[in-house]
Amino acid sequence: MNSEEPTKSSARSGRARFLIGFLIVLAAVGVLVFRGARNAMVYYIAVSGLLAKPLNDDLDGLRVRGVVVPGSIDRQELVLKFKLTDGTESIPVTYRGVIPDTFGEDGEVVVEGAMTQAGFEASFLMAKCPSKYEAEMDGEGGPPPASKPA
Amino acid sequence: MIDLGQYSVLAALVLALIAAGLGVAAYRTRREDLLLSTRHAVMAAAFFTSLACLGIIYAFVVGDYQMEYIWGNSDRDMPLFYRLGALWGGQSGSILFWGWLLAMYSTGVAIRHRKDDLRLMAPAYVTLMTVLAFFLAIVNFASNPFRRGAFVQPDGVGLNPLLQHPAMVIHPPCLYMGLIGFTVPFAIAVGALVSGQLGNEWMKKARFWALVAWLFLGVGNILGGMWAYQELGWGGYWAWDPVENAAFMPWLAATAFVHSVMIQERKQMLRIWNMVLILVTFNLTVFGTFITRSGMISSVHSFAQSAVGYWFAGFLIVSAAFSIVMIAIRAKDLRSQHHLDSFFSRESTFLLNNLILLGGAFAVLWGTVSPMVIEGIRGVRISLGPPFFNQIMVPVGLALLLLMGVGPLVPWRRANWASMRRTFLIPTVLGIVAVAILYFMGVAHAYALVTFSFCAFVLWTIISEFHRGIRARRSSSGENPIKALGQLFVKGQRRYGGYIIHLGVVVIFIGFAGAAFNKQAETTLKPGETWNFRDYQLTYRGLRVENTPSVESVAADVLLEENQQPQAILLPRKDWYRKNKQLASEVAIHSTLGSDLYVILASFEDATEEASLKLYWNPLVSWYWIGGIVMVIGGILVLLPLNRRRTPIGA
Predict the structure, then answer these.
(1) What pTM does this model have?
(2) Hey, are the CB atoms on A136 and B360 less than 8 Å from each other?
(3) Which residues of B touch A4 (CB under 8 A)?
(4) Is residue B91 less than 8 Å (CB to CB) from chain A?
(5) Nearest of B290, B74, B301 to residue A132 by alpha carbon
(6) For this UniProt entry, which residues form the secretion signal (chain B) (predicted)?
(7) Which CATH class is domain B1-159?
(8) In this complex, do B391 and A32 lie within 8 Å of one another by their Cβ atoms?
(9) What is the pLDDT of residues B301-341, one digit of tens each?
(10) Domain of A93, in residue numbers
């Protein structure tokens, strides 16, 4: 845009320039999206799928979902160890950080991190509350009052 | 009370349908008396929707626990303030509440546009009432807050403790006001498309309502961030969660609209573009509602999965298809004969701003839906976290910030290269000087430096615009500077109010830049021990236990000193809600203009009273909230009827 001529350029060449400008912006956003997606993509994987993978694979940036094995929770100060299961197999998980309030035995959790020889090193732990903000009222689970009679 | 509520929602639904029918009749016959009846039916529907909401509020206040909704979202110990908030705390109540907001908006339209063109307004009322009927149909047939429970309960289970926070009472209404508010400009756009009244008339009406909704949506998003920051305990206010994205995308599209309408007004250009923008904005709000309510995307905000999702899916398909068809039919009439004079002009900066805003919106959309798309195609589940969004949106945000400074400096029509060099010289030098000073002060983060530099640039632009405006008024009318400033806001309401909004954005970006320097640390302390963190000393003085009938609370008593000067007593705590059997951590935040010290009680030992603390040091977070307030002030300055000589066509 440094070579703007004071003479009136024809509408056609003006429009071509706009088109080029638009394409540049679109390409820039496209590149950002593409690059971002490649760098930031995190794969969901099941516990058994994780165990089936050879350890020398690229096992960084994984998200594993499962249920906390009852009786496996070991909390020491800021380090939390527990076993995560998908019903058939289980892996040991180590997590360092603030434990979500909804974390507990038999609760569904999602851990994000890397698989190592010693087990899964989680850098992020998300605990799903069984009833998020509201008990399931519209589903087939039946209205909650029935499950908690007065 | 239950019966009154049941009949009210039914009556409201019937009246909404009647109003829509009357609107159709008024449009076909062009009879003003039928339009008057339509407007009255709109108000009657609003009255019964209000009555239904009052019924719920009354039931919450007296504790009518035979209603499932009341039972599930409140209990006897809850303060009145939170009981009112419980109206929109759950699924079915919040849908009724949406309907009520839309009914209120519709009433506002019926009053504000009572004298306006029938051809434009009749289809607009039909659209508004169709959407209202949709919400009321859900309330009546799918998710009814007045449903009776199987037993009469003596007490409720209470509201989720996470939601018991002042911001949580204000944030959802603001957000809903924003999201549902875009129905109004959409309805007016439909009026224009249906009737073929495609001039500036519709756009000026739609602009007002779009600005109202835009403002509420922005504030709602910031308040949501405040709630997350203080309540969720991960140290931040924005996580690129699908539900946050759902509210952010329409905001971006609407931001593009409120800018591009200025081009249509001045140059009669971009008429298709503006129409498309408002349709896109509305459809994005519907899409956002759909992904939130259907439980299709896992998110911390998801409501329980329910059949309501199908209702919204159907609604989205209908509204998207309708929008596309209407645009296709009217595309020929919307084409403009005018072209831009020059590639280098104010108009182009607006175009660029629009393009980047929409690019950002679609990047966010892609990040939100692509996990589903990829799962559908390749069968692998993936997730795109905050790094994805930050990589895209930081450069997008910075580009928009710079444009905010550049735009007002570039003249309309055609810029002269020599004069441009003069206008750009000072702000550019200022930006570079700001970078140099900050760099030598030890700020060594590229994005942060760029942000501060752009902020300096934009700030200069805003100040010089006010300076020029005041000088011009003083020389023409001899007013004193204060009066001249006041008159700027009256005479150039949208322009100067807009600059105040820009000022708010600058302040917000300063807050964003602070996040580049966030630090975190964690430790375990015995009572009496002191922890040194940067210039702070945190002395842990033991646990404090407090019991109330509903909550058992354990707090870590921490004395905070900065350079040996006592600053505050921090009490991060864990609350155990007996009735919900739920744990809720409450963080302690020491907030100053420079930085926030954010402390979480991670865990504690009952026997030894050892406490593990997690600490976040978040510089400049306060600027984010302050910037939000400045934006609201700017928005109000734009919307207030300051200029009383306003003609019906608008100033």
Answers:
(1) 0.89
(2) no
(3) 342-344, 415, 417
(4) yes
(5) B301
(6) none
(7) mainly alpha
(8) yes
(9) 544 556 788 889 899 999 999 999 999 999 888 887 677 77
(10) 43-127
